[in-house]
Structures are given as C-alpha cells and as structure tokens.
Specification:
InterPro entries: Cyt_P450, Cyt_P450_B, Cyt_P450_CS, Cyt_P450_sf
Number of strands: 14
Largest sheet: 5 strands, mixed
Keywords: Heme, Iron, Metal-binding, Monooxygenase, Oxidoreductase
CATH class: Mainly Alpha
GO molecular function, one term: monooxygenase activity
Family: Belongs to the cytochrome P450 family.
Number of helices: 18
Helix content: 40-55%
Number of domains: 1
Strand content: 5-15%
Pfam family, one: p450
Structural class: alpha+beta
CATH topology: Cytochrome p450
C-alpha cells in the first residue's frame, strides 16, 4: 500500500450511475482533487492529462513488475489458482510485458502486423460494411451495437488472423469473458468464464497455428509463424497469446468507440448532419478520420488503465515502492481543459487531437491503425446508407454493460427515418 498523504476518495467504478455518465464527477475531481488515493482499489489515481502522459512515458513505471521482483518481494499475494490460465496469458503477451521481452515481442509482431497490411484492408472492410448495411433499418428499430458495431471488427480481425467462418461466432463471447476479468467488480463466476475462454481460445489457435506451419496461407497467423528477426521467432505459446490479445484489443475499442460515438452524434444532431452531408464525397475519408479521433477522445471506450511502480519514488507527495499501482483516468485526461479547447463539446475538425485513448510510450496500442480505419469507414458507411438515423427515444441514455475499465454500450436502439 502506498504511503499516500493524499485525499482518500473511493472512485465509484461499480456504480451504474457513474458508469452511465462518469464525466461530471471526473471534472470535479480533475479541478478539485486531481491526485488522490483510492483505498478501495489501493492505488493512487491521476486525473489530469499532463500527469497521466508523464507516467505513461516514465520508465520507472511498467505494466508488470514480475520481470524484476518476486511476488514476495513486492508484497503481493500468491497467484490465484482459479485464474491460472488467465494469468499465464496476461504474463505472456506484449501488452503486459516489459523490456527486453516487450521489445522482442513487439518487433516480431510488428513484422507481421504492419501499417501497410492494415491499410490494405480498406476495400475488404467497405465490402463487409456494405453487406451489414444491406436491409438494415428497413424494418424499423434495430440495435446498433449487435447489428452493426459488433460484427465488423470481429469479422475483420478473424479474417486477418485466418480464423475460419465456422469458428467466428465464438470469438466475441470469448473476448467478452476474458476482458471482464479486468474489472474491479470481477467475481468467481467471471474468473471461471475467463479461464474457460482462454483455454478454448488457445485450443483453437494452437490447431490453426499448427495448420499454418504445415500449409501457409495469406493471413496473420501464417505471418506470425514466419516472423523472424536475427534468428528469433515467436514460440507457439507466444503466438497463441498474441493472437488472443489482438482479437481482444482489436475489437473492444472499435465496438465501444463506434456505438458511443454514434450516440454522441445523434444527441448532437448538427454533427451527424454535417457528416451525412460530406459522406457521399469520395474525398471525405480524412474528415471521417478526424471525426473518429474526436469521438474516441470525447467518450473514451477504455477509461482507466494502470501502471506499476518499478522502483521507489515519490509521486505527487505519495511515497511509492515497487509493486504499487497507479490508476490513470484516460477518460478524465481526454477532457482536460488544460490540453483541449472546450473539451466537453464535440469538434469533429479538432486537429491536432492528442488524446490518450490508445496510450503513449512503449505500450502505445499496436492495433490503433486498424481501430482508427474501422471507425472512420464504419461511420462513413452508416452516414451514406442511413442518413435519417435517429435514436428510438430522443432522451435515450444508452444501456451500458456495467464495466468501467472497458466501458461500452450493451445496446443502442435506433431507427432510420
């Protein structure tokens, strides 16, 4: 526990009202108590952009500390056997690793998951979107989350990896079960579901990676199997855990960012109408790319991340020791008026837009280019196909899943016309 002579405040991360709309409380904390200690989560919490970005770039913090210290040295309890496979997965992928392992993994994955490969997906993404939109909205109300936001990212990452169509329906439920364990409210049922999802997902990917070694194809699993640098390759387990991570991270931000973004646009109709007016133009994609950035800033799909102290230090008056955790409220930093002009308002032409949504530093999101492309193309296709889209109920608050670490709409009822 940090020695923290800071105000003690419990962030209500499990309160449905807070998850529904965290921004008023975040604004109050950002102005009045920008740094505080949360005794419930046992960590220092940062709310301002400058403080968050400083920690993200500070090499004294990491996503893990177990590469330097034992659990006993950190004062951490022993691993929970109820989530041993989930913990093994977390400890083996690049998001929760630190140099030199992180450097090695990111270099190898980067050889396969290139910006050129991502940009080459535009035509295929547009074809998938056209298929999804065919007939959508013609029979009245539909759920934007299930019927439009969810299918695309899952289909794209599945095709990119090379997961057969017959197995794709399993991916979203597996991912949802795995990421649920990142929430502070996770219980024994969430543990069991995450464990089962990791095991089932791993079994599928082990089979697919074996097939690709025998019969290479034009997909990301094959590229990862063959990725080599200075004679080094990914082990089978590293490849499996990397693919699980790409699936999870590759669509959570896209699904939640698109649904929340459309909700924001329909609540502020003038912005939706401006996009609709621009959408038919062939040169409109840059506008939709800027709009996507602003929507990711305005309503952050991943509101809270953490870093772990790797050495003893002082942070805003709190004495930290190795293993102490710091929570970074991206959702608050993305609305900090010290960084953004009129941050509580949408500005679809905001440029530059240095939001925190994909992180900063060495752990900057590897899948950010894909998420950005999917969101921009999804918005443009929706505006072109359903220009008269509106909320089923004008005062629709949105129904959220209940998580705050990964915050997304469970459903959003809309109608065209």
């Amino acid at each position: 526990m940090p020695d923290a002579p800071l105000p003690h405040i419990r962030l209500p991360v499990t309160d449905p009202a807070f998850v529904q709309n965290p921004y008023p409380l975040l604004a109050e904390l950002r102005e009045m108590t920008p740094v505080f200690f949360d005794p419930g989560m046992n960590r220092v919490v940062l709310t301002r952009y400058a403080d968050i970005s400083s920690v993200l770039r500070d090499k004294r913090f990491g996503r893990s500390a177990l590469h330097r210290y034992s659990r006993d040295e950190l004062g951490w309890p022993p691993p929970d056997p109820a989530q041993q496979h989930f913990d093994a997965f977390n400890g083996n992928h690049l998001l929760d690793s630190e140099p030199p392992k992180h450097t090695r993994l990111r270099s190898l994955v980067g050889l396969a998951f290139t910006p050129r490969r991502v940009e080459g997906l535009q035509e295929r993404i547009e074809a998938i979107l056209a298929g999804q939109l065919r007939g959508l909205g013609q029979e009245g109300t539909f759920d934007l989350v299930a019927d439009y936001a969810e299918p695309l990212p899952v289909t794209v990452i599945a095709e990119l990896l090379g997961v057969p169509p017959t197995d794709r329906a399993l991916l979203r439920p597996w991912s949802a079960a795995i990421v649920r364990l990142y929430e502070p409210s996770a219980d024994s049922l969430a543990q069991a579901e995450a464990e089962r999802a990791v095991l089932d997902f791993s079994a599928l990917l082990r089979e697919l990676s074996g097939q690709r070694r025998r019969q290479p194809q034009d997909d990301l699993i094959t590229a990862l199997v063959g990725a080599e640098q200075d004679g080094d390759r990914l082990s089978e387990q590293e490849l499996i855990d990397t693919c699980i991570l790409l699936l999870n991270a590759g669509h959570e931000a896209s699904v939640n960012g698109l649904a929340a973004g459309v909700l924001a646009l329909l609540r502020q109709r003038e912005h939706w109408d401006a996009l609709v007016a621009a959408a038919p133009r062939e040169d409109s994609l840059p506008l939709f790319r800027r709009a996507a950035e602003e929507l990711l800033r305005f309503d952050t799909p991943l509101p809270m991340f953490e870093r772990i102290a790797l050495e003893s230090m002082e942070l805003h008056g709190a004495a930290l020791k190795p293993g102490d955790r710091v929570s970074l409220l991206y959702a608050s930093g993305n609305r900090d008026p010290r960084k953004f002009d009129v941050p509580g308002a949408l500005n679809l032409n905001r440029d530059p837009n240095p939001h925190l949504t994909f992180g900063l530093g060495i752990h900057y999101c590897l899948g950010a280019p894909l998420a950005r492309l999917e969101l921009a193309l999804s918005l443009r296709a929706l505006c072109r196909a359903l220009p008269d889209l509106r909320l089923k109920h004008a005062d629709e608050p949105g129904q959220y899943t209940g998580g705050f670490v990964i915050r997304g709409l469970a459903r959003l009822d809309v109608v065209n016309g």
